[in-house]
Amino acid sequence: MADGHQSDLHSDQAQFKSMMEGTQEDWAIIAGHSKAFNKGLADRVLAHLRLLDGDYGGFPIDRLTHSLQSATLAHRDGMDEEYVVCALLHDIGDTLGSYNHPDIAAAILKPFVSETNHWMVANHGIFQGYYFFHHLGLDRDMREAYRDHPHFAHTARFCHRHDQNAFDPAYETMPLEAFEPMVQRLFAVPKNSIYLKALTDKTQAI
Predict the structure, then answer these.
(1) Residue 201: its pLDDT value, please?
(2) For residue 70, what are the contacts with CB-CB under 8 A and spacing of at least 6?
(3) pTM for the structure as a whole
């Protein structure tokens, strides 16, 4: 019985030892697993965001509350859902990208958002520096290198209206539960991916 069970499990796995040996049948198996796994992406993102809970880093509020407050400000300012989720997740890289946290958030969001919002998230660290870099001996005008970029104003507005001012302990910040449906909808279907054609094919590959 045990041997039969192991055989059944193995039959649901690709049989190659290197990708050069892989067959269409092998990749159909992998694609099937990927399809199911990818459905849980939003849940995994939310779980990682929750790691910011209780992490103050010297700030007036913890990093999760800052993220929620940023999203709340954006939502109450009438920004669209994609933008609001970007505000929610803009600092999700703090746990693993201590020296490049915007890159982490931008990489997670890239397949699902517009180029404008992706650029905003990827560069918000430099633009946010306008408000505090001079206190650390850095150039607060570092963002001026991007003055002629088409997404400059969009990113500057995010940092001014929905990021640098999202550290108020007394502000009535919306809970994470209010944003979870938005995150689920955003991560349901990618817009940009090297795997996008395969995703829309009948086989629903990777």
Answers:
(1) 57
(2) 87, 88, 90, 91, 162, 163, 166
(3) 0.89
